[in-house]
Amino acid sequence: MSQMHHSKDFDRQIQPNSTPPPAGVRRSTGAAHRPIGLSMLAVAASAIGVALLLWAGAWFGAPDIDPGSRLAIVARAIGLALVIMAVLELVLAYGVWERREWAWPLGVGLTVTALVLTLLSAGRGPSGAHTMSLLLEIGTLWYLMSPPVHQAFRSHAGKGA
Known about the structure:
161 residues, 6 helices, 70% helix, 0% strand
C-alpha cells in the first residue's frame, strides 16, 4: 500500500509542463517539444555548415593554385566567404534547434540568399542538381514562412534564452 502511495507522488513530480504547445508542434515524451520539420531543418543546417567548412578547406589548400598568384587571392576570398557562410549555418542550426526568436529571420535571410545565388547560377552545372536546389530552397522558405512555424519561434522566445 505504501508503495502505491509513493509511486503516485513520484508520477506527479515528473509530469511534463501542462501548457499546450503552439499549433503544429507535436508533444513528445522528451524535454524538447519542437516540430519535426524544425529538427530536420537544424540537422540540415548543421550538415550544410560542415560541408561548407570542408569546401572552404579545399579552396584554402588547393594544390593546383600557385601561391602568390591572383587566383590564390581569389581562392582565399572564396574560402573566407565559405567559412563565414558555414559559421552562419551552424549558428542557424543552433538557433533552430533551440527555437531562438532570432533564428527565424536568420533562416529566412540565408534561404533567400541561397535562392538568389541558385537563380544567378542557372545554366552552370547539372540541371538536375540546380532544379533540386531550387525545390529545396523554395520548400524551406515556404516552411519557414508558414504561420505555425513562425509562431513556434515567437512562442518559445525568452524561454531558456
